[in-house]
Amino acid sequence: MSLFYRSTRDDSVKVTASQAILKGLAPDGGLFVPDSIPSLDKSFEELSKMSYAEVAYEVMKLMLDDFTEEELKECIAKAYDSKFDTEQIAPLVKADGAYYLELFHGATIAFKDMALSILPHLLTTSAKKNNVKNEIVILTATSGDTGKAALAGFADVKGTKIIVFYPKNGVSPIQEKQMITQKGDNTYVIGINGNFDDAQTGVKNIFGDKELEKVMDDAGFQFSSANSINIGRLVPQIVYYVYAYAQLLANNEIENNEKINVVVPTGNFGNILAAFYAKNMGLPIAKLICASNENKVLYDFFKTGEYNRNREFILTTSPSMDILISSNLERLIYRIAGNDAASNAKLMASLKESGKYEITEDMRIKLDDFYGNYATEAEDAATIKKLYEDTGYVIDTHTAVAAAVYEKYRKETDDTTKTVIASTASPFKFTRSVMNAIDSKYDSMTDFELVDELSRIANVKVPNAIEEIRTAPVLHDTVCDADKMCDSVKKILGI
Predict the structure, then answer these.
(1) What is the 3-state secondary structure (H, E, C) of the chain?
(2) Which of 23, 112, 177, 287 is catalytic?
(3) Distance of CA 435 to the CA centre of its chain
(4) What is the pLDDT of residues 68-126, one digit of tens each?
(5) Is 356 one of the catalytic residues?
(6) Phi-psi region for residue 412, left (φ > 0), alpha (ψ -120 to 50) or beta?
(7) At residue 409, what are phi and psi to the nearest 5 degrees?
(8) Tell me, what's the pLDDT at 225?
(9) How far is CA 53 from CA 17, 90, 118, 168, 416, in A?
(10) Do the beta carbons of residue 69 and residue 125 sit within 8 Å?
């Protein structure tokens, strides 16, 4: 065993992969990062002949090296099974000169399934490995997709409870319905009066409450997280970029070792960070294209070197990206600071105190591999409409942000490198926004009439995840203020 995980804010914190998964967040509020990034030890030729599960093992064995082969393969087998509606798990679709990596074929039709199908198994295996006797309480904030995917993953998993907080008026109707109808004796869903950043901050504060931690331990509970702050969530996301490359090679779309670009629509930065880690493991990625919506804090960061969340929070039609605090960016900041925890801690303290920080010129140079841009609401809708009219292919509002930004990148640079676009959600998750983009006449239809119409025009079967909620009863109707989140947790746990 050679790989350890350190906190981005304290060099002295050093744990194994399974311990990092269990903890979720480091005690000092930092995020766990590997002390080195291992290189892929299989050739791309070999990887191109593998199934998704086999590629997953080859990537994850390197990053989670305190898991035995048997443990890891068992977790993978339980995760990537019939929950997905295609054997490929993450198919590639070519449309309008780009390759769309469809990450929405899991139980909740969003990319979060790719990691949250396996996280419960990694977590319960980690608990056994570390002789944990407490019940694990998964505490998560969601901007829409993580919540449902985590609920589905942890529902009725023995030895766990899961509590999800979401912004009451900040998710799509389908996203909300998916969460509030979630079955499972160990599942709890709470809407908050506030936005996603309020929910995320509330969760971080609960994690950092040492007094509460002691009370919980005495009562036989301990917290862990399903957010992308958990390294057990991030590592599985590396897999699909490696798999995408292997598929391009298998389909003779690229030569061996040919470089590709990757475009990722993101608010929290975790999904593109996984692509950055894949590149550092040896995947031939040229440009990492970071696509933002109108909450363009990441675009401004790449343009100026300043991260500033002191701005208006905008509700958009791509709500999973409506984020002003990109917590996963901290992992990249730590790396470009030369893995210097003290420097990173200073910047994060500045973010907390003043809402902003600025990186040095030396750090900016290390961001050369990244390109950032954003799409307005009008550009987002126009991209959905044009792609559908030109090709018949329908994408959701988040993927459209990526497609719009990719178009801007192409025009700016004339770069003809073959490009993979991370397609992060099914259009069925955001039917009203998608159908309105195609034609405003659809606005008079109900949500589920729109679902059927989308199925017809896209010639795609309505996913099970949508069919299930047509008539599902509401099981969770609790709403609280952002400053009452901790009280809600205590009430659920009876402490």
Answers:
(1) CCCCEEECCEEEEEECHHHHHHHCCCCCCCCEEECCCCCCCCCHHHHHCCCHHHHHHHHHHHHCCCCCHHHHHHHHHHHCCCCCCCCCCCCEEEECCEEEEECCCCCCCECHHHHHCCHHHHHHHHHHHCCCCCEEEEEEECCCHHHHHHHHHHCCCCCEEEEEEEECCCCCHHHHHHHHCCCCCCEEEEEEECCHHHHHHHHHHHHCCHHHHHHHHHCCEEEECCCCCCHHHHHHHHHHHHHHHHHHHHCCCCCCCCCEEEEEECCCCHHHHHHHHHHHCCCCEEEEEEEECCCCHHHHHHHHCEEECCCCCCCCCCHHHCCCCCCCHHHHHHHHCCCCHHHHHHHHHHHHHHCEEECCHHHHHCCCCEEEEECCHHHHHHHHHHHHHHHCCCCCHHHHHHHHHHHHHHHHHCCCCCEEEEECECHHHHHHHHHHHHCHHHHHCCHHHHHHHHHHHHCCCCCHHHHHHCCCCCCCCEEEEHHHHHHHHHHHHCC
(2) 112
(3) 25
(4) 999 999 999 999 999 999 999 999 999 999 999 999 999 999 999 999 999 999 999 99
(5) no
(6) alpha
(7) -60, -45
(8) 83
(9) 20, 11, 11, 36, 31
(10) no
Per the CB < 8 A criterion, the answer to whether 247 and 44 are in contact is: no
Residues listed for the chain: 495
Q: Which pLDDT does position 1 carry in this prediction?
A: 56
Instruction: State phi, psi for 5 to the nearest 5 degrees.
Output: -115, 135
Tokens of 289: 């294209």
For residue range 321-353, list pLDDT tens digits in order.
999 999 999 999 999 999 999 999 999 999 999
Judged on CB neighbours under 10 Å (0-12, 13-18, 19+), 152 is buried
164/192 Cα distance (integer angstroms): 10
CATH value of 92-110+232-469 in 3.40.50.300, 2.40.40.10, 3.30.420.10, 3.40.50.1100: 3.40.50.1100
Number of neighbours of residue 302 by Cβ within 10 angstroms:
17
What is the pTM assigned to this prediction?
Answer: 0.93
Residues 35-77 pLDDT 10s:
999 999 999 999 999 999 999 999 999 999 999 999 999 999 9
Which residues of the chain fall below pLDDT 50? none
Question: For 425-462, b where at least 16 C-beta lie within 10 A, e where not — what string?
Answer: bbbbbbbbbbbbbbeeebeebeebebbebbbeebeeeb
- CA–chain centroid gap for 59, Å, is 18
